[in-house]
Amino acid sequence: MENKRINGNDLLALGYAENSALGVALQINKKRLGFTREQMLAHFSAILANPEAYAEDAVFKTLAQELLKQDELEASYIALKEEGHYEIYGEEHIEEGAKQQMQVAMTLRVSVAGALMPDAHQGYGLPIGGVLATGNAVIPYGVGVDIGCRMALSIFDLPAAYLTEHSDALKKVIMQTTKFGAGQGFQKGDRASHAVLEQDTFAMNDLLRSLKDKAWAQLGTSGGGNHFVEFGVIAFDQADAELGIEAGEYVALLTHSGSRGLGATLADHYTKLAKQLCKLPYKAQHLAYLDLGTAEGQEYWMAMNLAGDYTSACHEVIHEKVRHQLGAERLAKVENHHNFAWKEMWNGQELIVHRKGATPAAKGVMGIIPGSMASPGFLVRGKGQMESINSASHGAGRLMSRTKAIKTLAPSDLKAILNDQGITLMGAGMDEAPMAYKDIHTVMAAQQDLVDVLATFSPKIVRMADDGSRED
């Protein structure tokens, strides 16, 4: 017990409130400063009781000063409202932290409706798998860091047997097509061109002008984290008239990646701006929003849409390169994105719908919901359920953190699963092992009311970042 780290719950038990002083106390505690756990707790208790006595203390003055200004800070915050109702799908498989985050999101003055998808897990601000509809306000952290992250599926007129007969050639196609890993980009002689780079929004402000060259260098790259390029088999049990595809099995290319350094930089900049302009209580600070009636709100909205268009262009570059190298006819292409905000009509009013790690699933809208590197993904068509705010999950969802996966999962178990499924893996770390994710079949069962399954995609050749790096 002596060495057990002091956490937020310990401080709350002492009487600390859930505010910025709590964060300052935890930062001081990280240093430990030669005190035992009991001594630190005693100091924290004494400072809370009489912060004036510690206002000039060499070790604890930052905490004392933070406590002394809490009343002034509280008076400056935008008040929250009573928690509103939101729908939960697959609740028994969703961690408590994600539900608590969604509860906080529903207390924003601008929040109108919310829903939690069955792949949900805790994130920053809005949980991953969280859907939040607001009135004329956009939340940068409700969109997320990887703005416009996208799934794209190309179905080719090639039989499933093509994958095994040309496995080595297909691996080369992937390796020659894109780059993985945070910070990766193409040299000028190898860069792709695309109309997205000519959008006027790149000239909107100094920040976007400064990002244009990096965006060009990273056009057609795939980044790190859970992003991938996969060849696999897509199986249609019956023909789909809308896609014009007969029942059968086909070779397909599935890609997952986002707006790269462009989106990450924009997310960081506008989240900081929102926090400056929208002062919320500590527990809701990551949900700071921008009013779309302001210049700052409009600026973020335009930047967000540019990042979404850029992500789409990245996938288009990858898919066109692959199609050209295969020399095959593409029967259909389907795309959908998450980590975005849309203007949509819901219950008779126009709202801003944030889908952080959630797939649009309005009636008739098609999407792709992947599993993991060793479990199937699904081509779906939305049913348009109002309760879910026309949304569905964006994947299986993490079962454990990246750190826990690296520490606890065995590479030998991953190898056995891949061998059993006949999957070739290039790159990736144990943080992306299928065991680190929820069971995709359980997730799909929890959203039968939200989507219809049209086809099943089984990955066979999977490429991810070599270093397990997070997105930049």
Features:
single chain, eight-stranded mixed sheet, 472 residues, 15 helices, RNA repair
Principal-axes shape call: globular
Q: Profile the largest sheet.
A: 8 strands, mixed
Q: Gyration radius, to the nearest Å?
A: 24 Å
Instruction: Compute the number of strand runs.
Output: 17
What is the residue-mean pLDDT, rounded to a whole number?
A: 94
Q: Count the DSSP helices.
A: 15
Q: Report the structural category.
A: alpha+beta
Which blocks of ≥5 consecutive residues have pLDDT under 50?
A: none
- What's the N-to-C terminus distance? 38 Å
Short account of what is shown:
This protein is of the alpha+beta class. It has 15 helices and 17 strands.
Task: Characterise this structure.
There is one protein chain. The chain contains 15 helices and 17 strands. It has helices at residues 8-14, 20-31, 37-49, 61-68, 70-76, 96-105, 140-143, 161-165, 167-177, 206-218, 260-277, 295-326, 402-408, 411-421, 440-445; strands at 87-88, 111-121, 128-134, 137-138, 150-156, 228-236, 248-257, 290-291, 330-337, 340-346, 349-356, 358-360, 366-369, 377-382, 391-393, 424-426, 451-463. α9 runs antiparallel to α12 and α10 packs antiparallel against α11 (260-277). The longest helix has 32 residues, at 295-326. It is globular. The two termini are 38 Å apart. The mean pLDDT is 94.
